[in-house]
Specification:
This is PaREP8. It comes from Ignisphaera aggregans (strain DSM 17230 / JCM 13409 / AQ1.S1). The chain is built from five helices and no strands. The radius of gyration is 16 Å and the shape is elongated. The protein has one domain: Up-down Bundle (Four Helix Bundle (Hemerythrin (Met), subunit A)), CATH 1.20.120. Helix 2 packs across helix 3 and helix 4 packs antiparallel against helix 5. With about 130 residues, the chain is an all-alpha fold.
């Protein structure tokens, strides 16, 4: 995983446990936002590795589609809706919901990590 994204996700998991223990809804919302930020940063890193610089979430979604990453685009958009909008902004979530969404974030981070590793190995000159 990417170090920044991994740190964000680890912080989310620790805060999720604390939120479950305390019932603190604001902490739960913060958990959701950190998990969303991990996804957003990972997708941005992949796009940069592909030579694409973006400034908005919409540009990220559009470029993922253009580059043939339709499933990643769908996962990105779903996490944006569920974690960023529904949970963080609107407070429509509970710990079980956020825990499930974090499992989806982990899947996205693993996929993006694998894709960027493939890109890096293609850039390396062949060694005989």
């Amino acid at each position: 995983m990417f170090s920044v994204e991994e740190i964000l996700l680890d912080a989310s998991m620790m805060e999720l446990m604390e939120s479950k223990r305390s019932g603190d809804m604001m902490r739960l919302r913060d958990v959701a936002e950190k998990a969303w930020l991990a996804v957003s940063r990972a997708v941005e890193a992949l796009l940069v590795a592909l030579g694409v610089e973006v400034r908005s979430y919409r540009e990220k979604r559009d470029w993922l589609r253009k580059l043939g990453y339709e499933a990643l685009r769908d996962g990105f958009a779903a996490r944006e809706k569920f974690l960023h909008i529904d949970c963080f902004y609107d407070g429509i979530c509970d710990a079980e919901f956020v825990e499930y969404e974090i499992s989806k974030v982990e899947e996205i981070l693993r996929f993006v990590d694998e894709e960027t590793k493939k890109l890096r190995t293609r850039e390396q000159p062949s060694k005989l």
